[in-house]
Amino acid sequence: xxxxxxxxxASETSPLAPATIPRRGPTEHDVQIEILFCGxxxxxxxxxxNEWSEFAPTVYPIIPGHEIVGRIxxxxxxxxxxKRGDLAAVGCMVDSDGTCLxxxxxxxxxxxxxxxxxxxxxxxxxxxxxxxxxxxxVVDERFVLRLPSKLDLAGAAPLLCAGIxxxxxxxxxxVTKGKKVGVVGLGGLGHMxxxxxxxxxxxxxxxxxxxxxxxxxxxxGADEVVVSRNSDEMQKHVGSFDFILDTVSADHDINAYLxxxxxxxxxxxxxxxxxxxxxxxxxxxxxxxxxxxxNIGGVAETQEMLDFCGEHNITADVEVIPIQRVNEAYERLxxxxxxxxxxxxxASLKSE
Length: 352
Prior knowledge:
single chain; seven-stranded mixed sheet; 17 strands
């Protein structure tokens, strides 16, 4: 074991503050990564404030962070995929049982014994896992990803959650050139959805409640922007979409978007509204439409996504902050006051 610097929260009402945490030393299949940047995901905030207590109660102290990029500084004796000095990334999961059907088919994200990067039972040290708001992390090489060297590291960090969360359903449901694709919401997830749909060659339409986001949506790769509160604009697109990615986590009328789907069209939820959505059966029946959900991707698909980003030079639009401003960033995140993700420069932790 060794001690690592980190920022942690002691309770759901406590601010994140400097802390020292235990990390396991690398075993034969592990790599130790010096963390260079860590993205801030909305799930970090939910977990720190124990807002998902019904299905994922927070164990304190908590060290969040699952959008990790860094450089490998140690490798175990049996590690074959990486060497010291390699750029590497870690996403939302750090282990799984490796034996279930999901793991054997590259869908580790659905493993019933999945170990998440933070606030998940730690099978090595006991307690729970600690995430990326830290100077280093030790991870089994099976869950370490190779980062294309051409990508900006600060902008690459959010790819490990926001990126794969939007990439995976588009790949799974066949977003390609010639498809008409909608993206509902232009936030941390939505802006990545626009970039990927554009790179896949689709005709991309952004739906937003904010008319002032039109210019940004077009800059990110949208072909059209629809203000969703404008019924005339919405009506023009009825029955015309192949796929819609819904990134909105606030309550909203899902039927308004279901009605925009064409025959066999699909809408996939990656946002998580706090209350159940009321779905009209007729919205689905009319054109054999489907409503689905998606979370992240497996290890292989996440690596595929990173490689795709390297080929197309795709990163998140980020505001880089020092770790000392993380509590301020959380307050701004609640107000959607960021374009479009925060990325923590973990070099700032050295001064603590």
